[in-house]
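Hi R.,

Here's the chain you asked about this morning:
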Amino acid sequence: MAKQDHWDAVWTAKEPTGMSWYQPEPAVSLGLVGSSGVSPSAPFVDIGGGASTLVDHLLERGHTDLTVLDISARALDRARERLGADADTVTWVEGDAVDPPFRRRFAFWHDRAVFHFLIEAADRAAYLAALRRHLDPDGQLIIATFAPGGPDTCSGLPVRRYDADALADEVGSGFEPVTETREVHTTPWGGEQPFQYVLIRRSG
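And here is the predicted structure, written out as tokens:
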């Protein structure tokens, strides 16, 4: 509950456009999703999606089976308010990424900036166990975190920074890195934050 209370307070205190991670168009994620070849009809989950605009752009591109998970009900409310009637075409799930209450598998798992909040090894292990439970045997995933040289805290919480090799090592065996890229994200107030993205395919 402390974790949920923290994030509900964050989302209540600020507008989505005032969050450090806000992107009007998540171009890197969209480019990697496009290059992956995933079908628009394939089940897709955005982990910690909150009020991210990724879901808007995926709907515009014809994706029809979208799920957004976030620990904060307030974050999900913000996204639903923005999407209006289109929100009814998305499945919204309130839950923690280390133990998501999913009852299905996904072909694609997207996580921009949740994994780097998992400071404790036990939380990372639980997250990766959930990934293995809920990702198709031939599924793909994107994980993006702060890169080396990026902030060591975000929204009042400590984070871990990763390069591409470190992220691939964390995900572990049975997964094959496909491609990686860096992004220098510009915050709404003009700050710069380096992010590391990896696209990974499940291979066994």
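One quick note: The CA atoms of residues 23 and 30 lie 12 Å apart.

Cheers,
M.
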